[in-house]
């Protein structure tokens, strides 16, 4: 439901707020499940919260009921569902053996989620809506949730699981507050000729997810997580070549023509 339009209403609209609170319930249920060592249930609850988070904003726009109240409520609920819940899950599932370093990693994730939400709420409304600046916190939370299901599916236990998740938590914390750009998928315009191809692709994707959800969902969000730094690296490599080409063109324009 989050929006950066300064002209949105300050009224209270119950329907989208109820969807937002349903996401909060899912996040809280994830925390309770993690405390009870029901880690798979906790991971699934975070995924359910992600679904509600995607629905509340669309419902608000469809019913013309976006509001400042809804925006603030959405951010507070996101902090619980995508900050506290995945941090508690990560700590109790894999970071406890590291003692102080383990819970500090979990706290860092919550702190970076808070900063990520604050930056998003205060960023300029003219910022491109096709990209996110920094990894969205729902995607970071989903990455932790799918890691739990992925490790359970493959039977990954012991030190490998602990070290990999510790590294993942630190990496996600950095990516959320980084300046790497991520696709938002909010404004995807396609011509009629490609609509059928996209439909076929979506059907195939859902088929793959239905066949092996633990693996495919993990790989999809892993690719999305890495897309930000990879694209930044590609742009950095291309930029010197573009600058060299511009300098060459300027030098050719400034050089006098050869005398016959």
UniProtKB/TrEMBL annotation:
Its EC number is 2.7.8.8. The chain crosses the membrane at residues 37-55, 132-156, 162-183, 195-211, 217-234. GO terms for cellular component: endomembrane system; membrane. It catalyses: a CDP-1,2-diacyl-sn-glycerol + L-serine = a 1,2-diacyl-sn-glycero-3-phospho-L-serine + CMP + H(+). Its main location: membrane. It is found in: Endomembrane system. It holds the Pfam family CDP-OH_P_transf. It is an enzyme of class 2 (transferase). Keywords: Lipid biosynthesis, Lipid metabolism, Membrane, Phospholipid biosynthesis, Phospholipid metabolism, Transferase, Transmembrane, Transmembrane helix. It is a multi-pass membrane protein. One of its GO terms (molecular function) is CDP-diacylglycerol-serine O-phosphatidyltransferase activity. One of its GO terms (biological process) is phospholipid biosynthetic process. Belongs to the CDP-alcohol phosphatidyltransferase class-I family. This is CDP-diacylglycerol--serine O-phosphatidyltransferase. It comes from Candidatus Desulfatifera sulfidica. The lineage of its organism: Bacteria, Pseudomonadati, Thermodesulfobacteriota, Desulfobulbia, Desulfobulbales. The gene is pssA.
């Amino acid at each position: 439901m989050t929006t950066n339009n300064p002209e949105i209403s300050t009224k209270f609209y119950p329907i989208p707020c109820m969807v937002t609170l349903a996401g909060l319930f899912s996040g809280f249920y994830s925390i309770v499940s993690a405390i009870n060592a029901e880690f798979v249930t906790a991971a699934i609850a975070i995924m359910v919260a992600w679904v509600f988070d995607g629905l509340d904003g669309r419902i608000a726009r469809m019913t013309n009921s976006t509001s400042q109240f809804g925006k603030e409520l959405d951010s507070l609920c996101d902090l619980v569902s995508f900050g506290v819940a995945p941090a508690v899950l990560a700590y109790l599932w894999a970071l406890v053996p590291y003692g102080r370093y383990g819970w500090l990693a979990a706290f860092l994730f919550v702190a970076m989620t808070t900063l990520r939400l604050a930056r998003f709420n205060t960023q300029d409304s003219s910022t491109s809506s096709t990209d996110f600046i920094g990894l969205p916190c729902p995607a970071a939370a989903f990455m932790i949730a799918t890691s739990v299901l992925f490790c359970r599916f493959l039977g990954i236990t012991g030190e490998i699981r602990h070290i990999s998740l510790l590294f993942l938590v630190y990496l996600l914390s950095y990516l959320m507050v980084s300046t790497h750009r991520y696709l938002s998928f909010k404004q995807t315009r396609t011509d009629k000729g490609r609509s059928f191809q996209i439909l076929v692709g979506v059907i195939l994707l859902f088929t793959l997810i239905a066949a092996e959800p633990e693996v495919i969902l993990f790989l999809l969000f892993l690719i999305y997580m890495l897309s930000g730094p990879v694209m930044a690296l590609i742009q950095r490599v291309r930029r010197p070549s573009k600058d060299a080409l511009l300098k060459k063109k300027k030098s050719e324009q400034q050089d006098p023509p050869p005398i016959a």
